Amino acid sequence: MSLPYCIQTEREALVKFKATLHDTSNRLSSWRGNHCCQWEGIACDNVTSHVVKLDLINPCFGFVECDFVEHSLKSPNVDPSLSQLGYLSYLDLTGNDFHGSSIPTFIGFMGRLTYLSLAYANFGGRIPSSLGNLMNLHLLDLSSNNFQSLTSNDINWISQLLSLEHLDISGVGLGKAHNLFQVLNTLPSLIRIYLADCGLSNLPFPLVNFTNASQLQVLDLQGNQLTNLIFDTLQNMTSLVHLDLSWNNLDSIPSWFRNFDNVKYLDLSMNGLHGPIPDAFRNMTSIEFLCLSNNFFTSIPTWFQNFDKIVHLDLSFNGIVGPIPDAIRNMASIKFLSLFENHFTSSVPPWFGELNSLVNLNLGRNELAYMNCSLSSLLSNMCQLKYLDLSENKLQGELIGGYELSGCNSYDLEVMDLSDNKLSDQLPAWLGRLGNLEYLDLTSNFFHGPIPFSVKNLSNLKEMHLSNNKLNGTLPDSITKPVNLTYLHLSYNNFIGFIPRSLRELVNLQSLDLSNNHFNGTIPQSLGLLVNLESLDLSNNNFNGTIPQSLVQLLNLSSLDLSSNYLNDDVPQFLGQLINLKALNLSRNNLQGIIPESIGKLLKLQKLDLSSNTLKGTISKRIVWSSIIGLAYLNLSSNLINGSIPHSLCQIDELYSLDLSMNKLSGEIPNCWRDNPAWQDINFSYNNLSGVFPSSFQNLSSLLWLHLNGNNLQGKLPISMKSLKLLILDLGENQFSGSIPFWTNNTFPSLQILRLRQNKLNGNIPSHLCQLTSLKILDLSGNNLAGSIPWHIGNLRGMTLHKSPEPGPLFLEPNESSTTGWSKEEAKQIMKGREYDYTKILKFLVNMDLSDNNLVGFIPKEITMLNGLLGLNLSHNHLEGEIPKMIGDMKSLESFDVSHNKLSGCIPNSMPALTSLSLLNLSTNNFSGPIPQDNQFLTYDASVYAGNPYLCGRPLPNKCVGDDTGEVVGRGGYEDEDEDNLEKLIFYFVIAIGFVTGFWIFIGALLLKKSWRHAYYRWMEDAADMIYVAIVLKVEKLKRKWMVRNHVHG
After folding, report:
1. Cβ contact 334:314 at 8 Å
2. Residue 676 near residue 697 (C-beta atoms within 8 A)
3. DSSP states of 593-643 as a string?
4. Which intervals of the chain form a coiled coil (predicted)?
5. Which residues contact 757 (CB under 8 A, 6 or more apart)?
6. CB 771 within 8 A of CB 795
């Protein structure tokens, strides 16, 4: 049959229409010549030769691996020439780009149209009411045009489309179309309605109850924030086969839902449904697709076993508890099952292996503890399974299984994720049978032994994640056979030896992480052949030698981490040629020389860490630091860098952390700091900087940590500062003088650490300092402060404990602050008589040090309100009076030093209640009376009390009055001999019974439960010291009683 010729006027209209389109992918290359009926996307009537179909749908529409934008036809509008196609019945412009223009009115006068799709074509404005003229339309699709940029406030025009069967206006703004459901109720032929993301929550309720819904099969109302009021509209739609109410605000299901017994597709995800899965679903025995994810369901009913036709079941992100129910076992047709992120416990049932239609099985992020069969046995017959996720459970032990997979000729498995469990097998040889595997993640387990030789058979593998295990041995050449690998992550294991040269065969590799192992030797030049590498991490190994020149070929590299090795020589100039670098970390090596000027060419750099080397010279002014506009983190600390701090460092807009500490920098700190919302951390500590505190620091309103300690800064501290977010202000070990400024909670509302030690400050401790209610560390030691300790000291709420609202330990009141940066912060603090660098636990430290000043007066009783203090040092002052009697309330104290004062009176009876106290120094005072003989006081030596001539009792040689033995009589007097014997008898009897009973209970349990063994050993390790101390104290107390009794009766 000969092909029809096209009508000349219609051909000319098409040519004119094409002329307005920007066709970047040359889709319309066939649109030339006279026979327009043969052009791509054109169909003509075989009799009349009129163009009846124009199908220009984007060929990438619905395909992920396709450049949608590239294949999109682009035009500022739809040219009116199309109106000349008067016989057109089919028009599809889906997936093109009309630049937000309005849908042309003339389309409404193309009266023969039965099919009109303008979906995803970037139209905007109001939908023209002229579309109501298209009374022959069977399908109208105006969906997803830039999320409600297309609107319709008056929907009456739809009521004229009496032949309409399919209506999709998803993404159209209909929030003001108050008569929407009344209009839809007038359309007798509607079968499918799609109203997703239309802003329907603004519609007035109650809505119309659908009466004209006998043919309606598909209803999509997702993403409209609808409440339960929508159910009144749905009640008569019993013919529905497909119902989507996801992404709304529903919190319950009406009982009449059981009438929806024809439903095959039901999506109620992303709502607020809670409790057991409701009985209203039980009649949906034809269900094939059921998605109830992201709700608050707590249990799966037994009648789920009736869903034997189900293909897709998603119960992820709920709160379902208990074992995985056997009801799922009856779902023989199921292909997709997700129980991800619930609270399923017990085991992975072996009957999963019977569901051999499964393609996707996701049991990740639950509390599954074991498997009733090995993984190899489970997978043996699951030939079609493509996705398996058992990650983030509590699976432990040797569950993988060593024998070969044998049930299938081949396995379709593409993704296997067992990460974040406690599996302790060797990696099985049967991994090599999974020839289609593309993604393997065994991260964060206890796998040990070598990487099996069989991995060479994983020819399709793209990502291998084996980090954070206990794998050992050398890297086998077989690991380089999966040549499609793009990610190879083997960090935090125990691999040894050299990096094999064969690694160069992985030419597609984009990310290589071998960090935190025991590799040695030099970094091979062959790594330079991995030209697609974007991330290379070899940190925390034993590599030596130089940084290989071949790395200059890695032009795609965005992250390079060679830190914590033994690399030497200079920092190479060629690094400046890696122009895509965003992160460069060469810290903690033996690098020397100067900072290369080529660093200034890395204009995309965001993080630079050259700390802890032996770099010399100055911070070059030839490096225009401000031109590296994205630089956010710069760490040059712990080197031998000298010279001054360049002003250009003030001008990096994105910089949030600058660490130049522990160098030999000199001169004044530049006074050029401007307000920058990115700033968090400045550390210039332990240099030779001089001059005064830069006034421009007051501009850094976002700064959290400021360390200027260990320099030669002088002058007065700034009297007034703007309200800063500082968490740490460390100005210690300088030459600042004058009094402490008027700093209050308004000045530093979030300040947690104030460290001014070893300066030349004088005057009183100002009472307004006690308004810093977030303060956890206050260190004013080593100054010339005088006067008394203000009684307002008890207002420092950051140093107090608060009762937990639930049963459990006491906790420090949390401060609203960023916690991400604490891990790298440190501060020197005197604790337990020694100076410590606190880093990782700094945010948990609570300490007050006012020592080495000229303070006078009493220790205020209000200080005992600070019951969160771990350390309190008031030594080397001129304090007098008594230790406050309520000091026993400070139960967190681990270190208490009031030595070298003029304190007097008795040691308070409450002090033995400080059971955490491991360092006590009361020496060189005027204390008198007996030393307490309870708890930890039995363990202190005489040096604790030296220089107090009026103290008596053990461990001092001074005997108390009426005590010839030097022992102090207990506060209740001597117990009689019978009582003493009874106490001895009970003590040893309890020890004996406890030992025998405990021995057999624990030994029996440990023999039966392997998992308990590990927990018990960990518990014993934590408890050993506590048990030892308790027994020693008790024995010591009994010995003393026996000695005193023998002396009295002797």
Report:
1. no
2. no
3. S---GGGGG-TT--EEE--SS---SB--TTS-GGGSTT--EEE--SS--EE
4. none
5. 732, 733, 779, 780, 781, 782, 783, 849
6. yes
Give 967 or 82, the one with higher predicted confidence: 82
Task: Provide the mean pLDDT of the chain.
Answer: 88
Strand partners of residue 535: 511, 559
Q: CA-based Rg of the chain, rounded to a whole angstrom?
A: 39
Spatial CA neighbour of 687 closest among 709, 713, 665, 708: 665
Distance (Å, whole) CA 936 – CA 940: 7
Give kind and range of the element (H or E) at residue 140. strand 139-141
Confidence of residue 576 (pLDDT cuts 50, 70, 90): very high
The pLDDT tens digits of the residues spanning 2-36 come to 556 789 999 999 999 999 999 999 999 999 998 99
Going from N- to C-terminal start, the domains of the chain cover 768-805+823-952, 995-1049
Q: Shortest CA distance to 358 belongs to which of 380, 395, 327, 333?
A: 333
Q: In whole angstroms, what is the distance from residue 258 CA to residue 280 CA?
A: 5
Give, to the nearest 10 degrees, the angle between helix 977-1008 and helix 1010-1049: 170
Q: ω into residue 908 within 30 of 0, thus cis?
A: no
Q: Is 410 exposed, middle or buried (0-12, 13-18, 19+ CB in 10 A)?
A: exposed
Give every CB contact of residue 181 below 8 A, 6+ residues apart in sequence.
203, 207, 208, 210, 233
Q: What is the signed CA dihedral for 702, 705, 706, 709, rounded to 10 degrees? A: 180
E strand map for 874-993: 878-881, 895-897, 902-905, 919-921, 926-930, 950-952
> Under 8 Å CB-to-CB from 98, ≥6 apart: which residues?
74, 75, 76, 77, 78, 121, 122, 123
What tokens were used for 902? 């003029």
Span 768-805+823-952 CATH architecture = Alpha-Beta Horseshoe (3.80)
For tokens 């890695």, what's the residue? 554
Amino acid at 223: G
Which pLDDT does position 837 carry in this prediction? 52
Strands 289-291 and 265-267: parallel
Those residues whose C-beta lies under 8 Å from the C-beta of residue 732, and which sit 6 or more positions away, are 709, 710, 755, 756, 757, 758, 759, 779, 828
Beta-bridge mates of residue 635: 609, 659
Other C-beta atoms closer than 10 Å to the C-beta of 780 total 24
Cβ atoms of 632 and 681 closer than 8 Å: no
DSSP 839-905: -TTGGG--EEE--SSEEEEPPPGGGGG-TT-SEEE--SSEEEEPPPGGGGG-TT-SEEE--SSEEEE
- CB–CB of 871/848 below 8 Å? yes
Tally of CB atoms within 10 A around 808: 8
Within 8 A by CB and 6+ apart from 294, the residues are 269, 270, 271, 316, 317, 318
pTM of the predicted protein model: 0.82
Q: What is the mean pLDDT of residues 951-964?
A: 84
- Judging by beta carbons within 10 Å of its beta carbon (0-12, 13-18, 19+), is residue 764 exposed, middle or buried? middle
**β-pair partners for 472:** 494
pLDDT digits 0-9 by tens, 837-879 = 544 344 458 999 999 999 999 999 999 999 999 999 999 999 9
